[in-house]
Specification:
The complex is a heterotrimer. Chain A is an all-alpha fold. Chain A has helices spanning about 5-40, 45-55, 60-65, 70-80, 85-100, 105-120, 125-130, 130-155, 160-185, 195-210, 215-225, 230-240, 245-260, 270-285, 290-295, 295-320, and one strand spanning about 345-350. Chain A has 2 domains: about 1-155, no CATH class; about 155-325, no CATH class. Chain A is built from 16 helices and 1 strand. In chain A, helix 1 runs parallel beside helix 9 (about 160-185) and helix 9 (about 160-185) runs antiparallel to helix 12. The longest helix of chain A is centred in the first third of the chain and has 37 residues, at about 5-40. The model of chain A is unreliable at about 325-330 and about 335-345 (pLDDT under 50). Chain B is of the alpha+beta class. Chain B is about 30% helix and about 20% strand. A 4-stranded parallel beta sheet of chain B has the order 8-7-12-13. The model of chain B is unreliable at about 1-20 and about 85-90 (pLDDT under 50). In chain C, helix 3 packs antiparallel against helix 5 (about 165-180) and helix 4 (about 155-160) packs across helix 5. By secondary structure, chain C is an alpha+beta fold. Chain C is built from 6 helices and 14 strands. In chain C, the strands form 3 sheets. In chain C, strands 1, 2, 3, 4, 5, 9, 13 and 14 form an 8-stranded antiparallel beta sheet that branches. Chain C has a 4-stranded antiparallel beta sheet with strand order 11-10-8-12. A two-stranded parallel ribbon of chain C has the order 6-7. Chain C is about 20% helix and about 40% strand. Chain C folds into 2 domains: about 1-85 and about 250-270, Immunoglobulin-like; about 95-245, C8orf32 fold (Roll). The chains are: A mainly alpha, B alpha+beta, C alpha+beta. Chain C: It holds the Pfam family Transglut_core.
């Protein structure tokens, strides 16, 4: 299929997933705050740093706002036009991408994304402050609806595979960041965990991590009520049966990539398949002990880097302006990613006067 | 006037529906040629079955059919962006429920006329891009051709496959007071509307199945197949199945719907300039499977924007190097480059001479009488009669840049006169023709006569194929003479029927 | 004279770009009874295949494209030309239609009121050759050669208003005047031996002048309003001609990417005798 169409479908899907993940996370954070305030008065600003850290926007945020609070963080992560990863920006970009390939998606898909876009244009920060629960629910529902409509109306062609890849890469990436930040903040080696008051705070925080991934009920089915950090890690990173785990996401992305290239297990057709195959195999044989041995932060960082490289290679292989045969293998010589936002300008050469 | 005659047609005189529609229809045959009602006040024979059927309809029946049509168009997403309107929004193309019927005897005459005209125009294009004999023989003034912004010197000497320049054309036809068909203008660059023609037919089949059955209507559903075949026939000879595609300027173009519709119907890829790249003088699309060679491009982008290397350098819609690839014969563009010189409104006035020069025949379809502002005598006449003429800019399309004498104020005439004198080569004038009228619905309740024209579609590949009928455009605003879709006109389905 | 030309055009970018597509008009013309191009060589860096065609005005055009990312484009054209002194009498019946293109306005040649007034001075004379000579002398005298005041897109109107420019501008003005007087004139792109500002013939640009059709008796005559010698002789190497600069730019192209471009050109003309 046309590279441009594949790329737009990929990013439409990816931006949508990003918006949903952000909504989910913010929602949980609000609830967390309410729970915590009942037990002990905690510096609430602590709670609000986490969402910013997860989206790696610390410097940017601090440049624009002078405190971490519900208002500032919500403003930045939901509404800010200066933040390309805010929910509003993500849905705008998802819609732009959808619009540019409107002939390849079903009219219901377009209608759904368009509705969500217009909803976000019309909602105000006051409304969100007044009833965050309804707002985030709306986003989550819209996302579910979009995915359901896509599932029901999009033919299982190459376009479908790119939609899946975008979604799952984003999901895996988001989960890794989330776990990284939260685990760091909730480090069980911290002595405060021994204190019963703080102990129950930790449990609530861990439950919040699970809820951010909509994993609480599923987790309980496997691990009953034992909210143990290591179990949570195991579940969110390695559990193949849970659709929001990293392992599941990588597996699904791999499946979609193989569907496009024709690679099979043990036989990769290109660099992308090799990289994701490697990541998937490693995940199947990794244990929580392995993760701790390496250092959880390092492990997750490596995962995130791996995902970024896979994204780059997908771009080079399927979307970039050239086929890999003529693209230099040295990435520093190749072209920077120029998404829908810009940069693909066409220019005239200067001419010399005679 | 038609009341008694129409009523006499019916056996059953007290069907309430009849008086609701044709009973009240004022054909005004003293002033206009009406497609349905003849001069004597009786209906033309080929409309008998239609009137019969409509007699059975009540207002509710019409409303129900309108609903069917609207739902169909809405689901198809058939829209048209209207420029000049504040919102620039997409609107459903207005459609009138009453079809225009053309008997096949009339149609064969039109067909022969079109075939003659398009053949001659193609020969004209071939000549001016090669030996320019017609210019040397002074049949057409050379400065008109050389001075035309659409004359592409880059294309001189190039031989397009089969010598065809105009693969898809649409010559607009009107009928005058006496009912004679005349050519109003030729469209040799990127004529649009074929998709509406096809959708109108689908809508009518759904809304009026009984009526459709009564008539033996010549089919047009095969247009996409015929178009694809035509495009394949002009591929550069390469042995393999030619890779055909439709090149669109993108979603913000007013005719985007048609580009994507035709691409889907033909089963070919719809591409934009940025999907294509020229490498080593050949054209490719960028796909997830690497670069794929392109053989034929049905391009819906104007020449000027097609190639930033050769034409407008600021164009982001085109593909650098595509003209050179075309020149070399590595790709075929439909229509060819530089066809605009022949659909210029000034050259239009020379078409009868062109037909005579290449075919040795008199034109079967007449031109509308035309005065050229570039000729001093004509200029004098034009300036003296501005109030009764329609003056048009030679290069603009879509009904802009035009003065309709009888509908203009003295002030507007003075301003326009200045423009004409400043740039005489750019203006032509024609008498106001009372275009023929066809009963059309206002709010689906009353019928009134609306001016119409006809745009047939002609395909030219290995041979010429002319689709029966075409798009009948209607000036839906009461009293308006402007049928162009970009200024609020609408359309009807056109039925060529065998008796 | 046997002259050698080395014309180097270098585009440099501060970030990788892609899809360079370029046309070059660097191949010197071979004219019947006149200049002959003996050798022509085109080198491209990065390497690319090039193709050629002959355009509407008879100029030989080469073109190429570079698909993958690159940071420089270097075009080196080397030619060896045998020039001839201008023939004294050339009986030439030029195609009327062909002459039309050289008789009216074009992209950079405009008939504005200032130009018409400028041309009025020469309207009296009847002989095209004399008129052209007078125009050429006049422009050479009153216009000042000064780089940097005009740019590559300046029209004849701009140049007349400024009174200064480079050879491209001088040529445009002379063409405008001649055409306004009813004498067909065309723009010529090429090189001049010994016309450089440095002693060894190296310069930063190619040269431009015009050819005027002085009737069937004299045919096309070359005039150079930039130099006081006025008449084109065997030191001049013609590449090609057109209505104005827009028809014969030595190098013209497009590219894609996010970068800024720097252009440098060097021309060296030497004698091989």
């Amino acid at each position: 299929m046309l590279s441009r169409v594949a790329e737009s479908l990929f990013w439409m899907s990816r931006y949508f997933e990003r918006a949903e993940n952000t909504a989910r996370f913010l929602d949980v954070n609000f609830n967390l705050l309410l729970d915590l305030n009942r037990i002990a008065t905690l510096e609430s600003s602590n709670c609000w740093i986490a969402p910013i850290l997860v989206s790696s926007e610390k410097a940017c945020f601090e440049g624009q706002y002078n405190e971490y609070s519900a208002q500032t963080v919500t403003d930045y992560l939901v509404f800010s036009r200066n933040n390309p990863n805010s929910i509003r920006s993500c849905i705008s970009l998802a819609r732009e991408n959808a619009r540019s390939v409107i002939e390849s998606i079903s009219s219901e898909m377009w209608e759904q994304i368009n509705n969500l876009y217009h909803f976000l244009q019309s909602v105000t920060p006051q409304q969100v402050q007044g009833d965050p629960y309804s707002f985030y629910k709306e986003i989550k529902n819209a996302s579910h609806l979009f995915q359901g409509i896509t599932d029901n109306t999009f033919s299982r062609t190459e376009g479908w595979d790119f939609i899946q890849i975008g979604k799952y890469l984003e999901r895996a990436d988001n989960a890794a960041r989330l776990i990284d930040v939260k685990y760091h903040m909730l480090n069980p080696e911290n002595e405060r965990a021994l204190d019963p008051v703080h102990g129950s705070v930790e449990i609530i925080q861990w439950m919040a991590v699970l809820k951010s991934c909509s994993a609480l009920e599923a987790f309980r089915k496997v691990y009953l009520s034992k909210i143990d950090p290591d179990n949570i890690l195991r579940f969110l990173v390695l559990e193949r049966t849970f659709p929001r785990s990293i392992a599941f996401s990588i597996c699904s992305a791999q499946e979609a990539l193989w569907a496009i290239s024709g690679s099979t297990r043990n036989r990769y057709a290109n660099n992308v398949d090799r990289l994701i195959g490697k990541m998937e195999s490693e995940l199947s044989y990794t244990s929580v002990e392995d993760m701790h041995y390496k250092g959880l932060h390092e492990y997750l960082k490596e995962l995130e880097n791996g995902l970024m490289r896979i994204g780059e290679q997908i771009h080079l292989l399927y979307f970039a302006y050239h086929t890999p045969k003529i693209e230099p293998s040295d990435l520093s010589d190749s072209l920077p990613f120029t998404g829908l936002g810009g940069g693909r300008a066409g220019w005239s050469q200067s001419q010399q006067q005679q | 006037m038609g009341l008694e005659a129409v009523a006499a047609l019916l056996e059953n005189e007290d069907i309430p529906g009849m008086s609701e529609f044709f009973g009240c229809y004022d054909a005004d045959v003293d002033h206009f040629f009406d497609e349905v009602i003849a001069e004597e006040g009786t209906p033309r024979p080929h409309y008998d079955k239609l009137l019969e059927r409509f007699a059975e309809f009540s207002a509710d029946d019409i409303r129900a059919r309108r609903e069917i049509v609207n739902i169909f168009f809405r689901n198809q997403g058939i829209t048209f962006t209207v420029y000049g309107v504040e919102e620039g929004i997409e609107r459903i193309f207005p459609f009138d429920l009453i079809p225009r019927v053309i008997p096949s005897t009339e149609w064969s005459m039109i067909e022969r006329g079109l075939e003659q005209r398009i053949t001659a125009l193609n020969l004209f294009l071939h000549d001016i891009y090669h030996d320019q004999k017609i210019l040397k023989d002074k049949v057409v003034p050379p400065e008109l051709v050389l001075g035309s912004e659409h004359f592409r010197r880059e294309f001189v000497g190039v031989d397009p496959p089969r010598g065809v320049y105009i693969h898809v054309t649409g010559s607009d036809l009107i009928r005058g007071r006496d009912g004679r068909y005349m050519v109003l203008e030729d469209n040799l660059r990127t004529p649009s509307g074929a998709s509406y023609m096809l959708q109108n037919r689908q809508a009518m089949k759904r809304a009026f199945p009984v009526l459709f059955d009564k008539y033996n209507v010549r089919p047009i559903e095969n247009y996409p197949q015929e178009l694809l075949r035509t495009l394949q026939e002009v591929a550069p000879s390469s042995g393999h199945d030619p890779n055909v595609m439709v090149l669109t300027p993108g979603i913000y173009n007013s005719a985007y719907f048609e580009h994507s519709f035709l691409a889907r119907q033909m089963g070919v890829e719809l591409t934009e300039g940025r999907d294509l790249v020229v490498n080593n003088n050949k054209v490719y699309t960028r796909t997830t499977n690497g670069l794929q060679r392109v053989d034929v491009i049905y391009r819906r982008i104007d020449d000027a924007f097609l190639d930033p290397l050769v034409f407008r350098q600021d164009s982001t819609l085109g593909v650098a190097g595509i003209i050179n690839a075309y020149r070399k014969g590595n790709v075929t563009l439909a229509n060819a480059i530089g066809t605009g010189v022949a659909d210029d409104k000034v050259i239009y006035s020379f078409v009868p001479a062109i037909i005579k020069y290449y075919l040795g025949e008199d034109p079967l379809l007449d031109n509308v009488p035309t005065w050229l502002a570039s000729k001093p005598d004509d200029l004098k006449y034009i300036l003296e009669h501005l109030g009764s003429l329609v003056v048009k800019s030679a290069n603009e399309s879509g009904g802009y840049g035009m003065l309709v004498g009888p509908a203009s104020t003295l002030r507007e005439q003075e301003e326009f006169a200045e423009r004409i004198v400043a740039n005489p080569r750019n203006y032509i004038a024609q008498p106001t023709i009372s275009l023929s009228r066809h009963p059309s619905f206002s709010h689906d309740t009353d019928l009134y006569g609306c001016h119409i024209d006809l745009r047939p579609y002609v395909l030219y590949g290995e041979k010429m194929t002319i689709l029966p009928g075409g798009l009948t455009r209607v000036a839906l605003k009461k009293g308006s003479l402007v049928v162009n879709s970009s200024q609020g006109g609408g359309s009807k389905d056109t039925w060529v029927v065998d008796e | 004279m046997i002259l050698k030309v080395e014309h180097t055009t270098l585009f440099q970018y501060d970030a990788p770009i892609y899809e360079t597509a370029t046309e070059v008009r660097l191949h010197p013309a071979s004219v019947m009874g006149g200049q002959q191009c003996v050798n022509f060589n085109l080198e491209l860096q990065p390497e690319a295949s090039f193709f050629d065609y002959t355009d509407f005005y008879g100029n030989k055009v080469h073109h190429f494209n570079i698909l993958q990312s690159h940071r420089d484009v270097e075009i080196v054209a080397t030619s060896v030309v045998e020039t001839a002194p201008p023939a004294n009498k050339e009986s030439l019946c030029e195609n009327e239609i062909y002459l039309m293109d050289f008789s009216g306005q074009s992209r950079y040649v405009h008939f504005d009121p200032a130009l018409t007034r400028f041309a009025d001075e020469f309207r009296e004379c009847n002989n095209a050759l004399e008129q052209a000579t007078a125009v050429c002398r006049h422009i050479n005298t009153i216009f000042e050669y000064e780089p940097g005041v005009t740019d590559v897109h300046s029209t004849s109107a701009v140049v007349i208003a400024l009174g200064r420019g480079v050879c491209q501008d001088f040529a445009h003005v002379m063409i405008a005047v001649c055409r306004n007087l009813g004498i067909p004139a065309r723009y010529v792109s090429g090189y001049l031996y010994g016309g450089g500002s440095t002693p060894d013939g190296q310069d930063e640009a190619s040269h431009a002048w015009c050819e005027v059709f002085c009737g069937p008796q004299y045919g096309w005559r070359g005039f150079d309003p930039t130099h006081k010698t006025l008449f084109v002789d065997e030191r001049y190497i013609k590449i090609g001609s057109g209505r104005d600069y827009a028809d014969v730019p030595p190098v013209r192209g497009t590219w894609k990417g996010v970068a800024s471009e720097q252009l440098s050109v060097s021309v060296r003309v030497s004698s091989l005798e």
